[in-house]
Design a protein that fits this description.
This protein is mainly alpha-helical. Helices cover 60% and strands 7% of the residues. Strand 1 and strand 2 form a beta hairpin.
Length: 216
């Protein structure tokens, strides 16, 4: 009985020590208790990093008490949305929207689509503007085109993968014979137009190309 009383006092002393910091309280929950440490949640909730870690690794779900502090940090708001909510974390979107990298990641990994609130931040960086157009919008990102135009590599990629594709995706293509006298008898035309975009030796090959272009 005395041994048990001693153990209880020892644990209480340990708790008093770990309650001095969010980090110690988190690791006490993770490594000692292997579960929730309610007495330490107030101190954990004052730190964005350990609030996120506590939710992910200990609670395996939301840590509502820590969401206010998490929402002030773009990085941990993005991670909390991605790993805990697996959906929007609206409380953290203001912080995320001020960071171009996490605005892009949030749109790509969480929203799976446009993140309008973060587009101003994204548009300040050529690379993220290009990535956003390519990976999220699958279309032009006009707000970012000015900054893209100032970056040689991004300009080339944007023109090839976004802008040139946009210029043909709404056109219809058809197959027809041309008047030039050489081995390539067939050609692919923009529907209703006179100028061909390529020549082929067979109607079948020309039709494959036209069908591929029409599916874009």
């Amino acid at each position: 009985m005395k041994k048990k009383d001693t153990d209880i006092k020892k644990i209480t002393k340990e708790e008093q020590e770990v309650l001095k910091s969010a980090k110690d309280s988190y690791y006490y929950a993770l490594d000692v208790l292997s579960g929730r440490f309610e007495k330490g949640e107030n101190v954990i909730s004052k730190d964005a990093e350990y609030s996120y870690r506590y939710a992910r690794n200990v609670l395996k779900g939301r840590f509502e008490k820590g969401e206010d502090i998490i929402s002030k940090d773009a990085y941990y708001s993005y991670l909390y949305a991605r790993d805990i909510f697996k959906n929007r974390f609206e409380k953290g979107e203001d912080a995320i929207s001020k960071n171009s990298h996490y605005s892009y990641c949030y749109a790509l990994d969480v929203l799976k689509g446009r993140f309008e609130k973060g587009e101003d931040a994204i548009s300040k960086y050529a690379r993220y503007s290009y990535y956003y157009a390519r990976d999220v919008l699958n279309s032009r990102f006009e707000k970012g085109e000015d900054i893209i135009s100032k970056d040689v590599d991004c300009s080339i990629l944007y023109k090839h993968n976004i802008y040139d594709y946009e210029s043909v995706k709404d056109n219809a293509f058809e197959v027809g014979k041309h008047d030039l006298q050489f081995k390539c008898e067939w050609a692919v035309y923009k529907k209703g137009g006179d100028s061909s975009i390529c020549y082929c030796t067979s109607e079948e090959r020309a039709q494959i190309i036209a069908d591929a272009l029409n599916k874009k």
